[in-house]
Amino acid sequence: MPKKKGGHKKKKIQQNTRRAMIYATGEGQVYARITHVFGNGRYRCICLDTNTERMAILRGSLRRAAKNVVVDAIIIVSLRDFQDDKCDIVHIYKQEEKHELVNRKIVPDNTQERDIESAFIFEKEEVEKPKPKQSEIDDMFSSI
Fold it and tell me: E-strand spans in the chain?
């Protein structure tokens, strides 16, 4: 029997298409940057319009796209009227789309703020070690 040659057309079409850019135009929608991932569809984000920190919750239809939500990802959040410290994630931007938003100056570029080396600088503490007494030193060497 001959080998079937069909069935790959859908994958080829998906690879060549680009998604249309979605902008935060709705009322109550702002851009935000993910700062911490808690799990179970919950994230800590900083809204870029007022620099307020909020708990972002991933809505149900975006649960399958949760692998794209990483630290420093740009998202669109919908603010809640009744809870100021919580918001809902409406759209997740991919890395290429993030660069396009930065180039258009819609979102500020904060890559310089995340300096990894500065996060691991510790101050040295001076610890005074107790000095042994001369009699203890003599006792150790006399037993040899």
Answer: 29-39, 42-47, 53-58, 74-79, 86-92
Backbone φ, ψ for residue 23 (5° rounding): -115, 155
79: left (phi over 0), alpha (psi -120 to 50) or beta: beta
Q: How many other C-beta atoms lie within 10 A of the C-beta of residue 34?
A: 19
Number of domains in the chain: 1
Dump pLDDT digits (tens) for 14-45. Answer: 666 667 778 877 888 999 999 999 988 999 99
User: CB–CB of 29/40 below 8 Å?
Assistant: no
The model's pTM: 0.65
SS3 of residue 76 by DSSP: strand
Supply the CATH number for residue 75's domain: 2.40.50.140
